[in-house]
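User: Second chain of the day. Same drill as before.
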Amino acid sequence: MNSNISAWEFFQRKDLKEFILPETVTSIADHAFYGCDYLKTISFPEHLHDLGSSTFMQCTRLKEVILPESVTEIGTETFSGCLSLRHIRIPEGVTAIRDRAFYHCTSLRTVHFPEHMHTLGKSAFERCTSLQAVRIPKPVKEVESRVFADCWGLISVSLPEQITRIGKWAFSDCFCLEKINLPEHLESIQDGAFTNCTSLTEIHLPEHLTEIGRQAFMGCTGLTKIEIPHTIHKIGKNAFICCNHLKEVSVYDKTDCLNSGLFRNAEYLYLHNKDCCVTVHVTDQSQEETLLYRFWAEKDPSRRRFFFRKIQNPDYKIPIAVLMAAAMEEDTIFREYIQQNFKTVSKFLLEHHDEENIGRLLSLE
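Assistant: Same format as last time:
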């Protein structure tokens, strides 16, 4: 036999159930075993180097694959649609798993990544619904888009500290995901990255994070609180929409680019400025809520005063005034508002049992 298997050579062969590749084979070309529905086992030669794209795609009865140590890369869609594949041994010499390599391998339960692997392609394990836990090796710098999307059974993910970006929809619809560490060097969480991760009850956003994409945590109904780092300069639309149990959101005054979707579904908003913090009760008055986020996102003092004057709801206006007067003594508008409405402000804080801000209020007299 030749030293390689040609493209499409065994395409949709129905008579192949077991196959032993000769030791002389070093390369398997694209689509070589595509659609071999009845193929259950295959033995690889010791010196196999190259696996082409879609080599075993749609081999729906293939249950186990043990690749030789000579393999260094798993190509695009190589095992895509292998519905019965339960176990795959990835050699330690593999440095790259390309796009959609194991897409829709619904029986795959475990996978061990080689220590020196540096590339994990887009949608590489998308729709692997039986996969339960993954540990990404250290050389990987980015989590590509949809890499583990629709992995319904995925419970835990371990990311290395070098990760700087989590791509679009990377973990979307991972309904059972309970635990994932966000590395300290993470800079960007892109659109829809954790959409509908309904079992996720807590998430720590690291201090180097600068961007949260649109719908990044949409539908994360298990989240009860979130703290936005002061390093954030962009939060996409509806980043936390439909987080129905979200009760607390903490935001720093240095945080830029807020939007009303951040406050939606939250019961309390914690606003920070310098060393001060106040609690704002978020209501469902959409116009007032819009003014609130526009005030907090605005950095120009005159524009900020404009939005403050337009806010009428005391649940927003009074806590903001107390906070800003205490933290920004050079800006007299907030202090003047408190002095002019001292009785109203005092009554409000007493009714809300806000002892910390009552102390601040007394210091402003």
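Residues 314-327 form the longest helix (14 residues).

User: Great, on to the next one.
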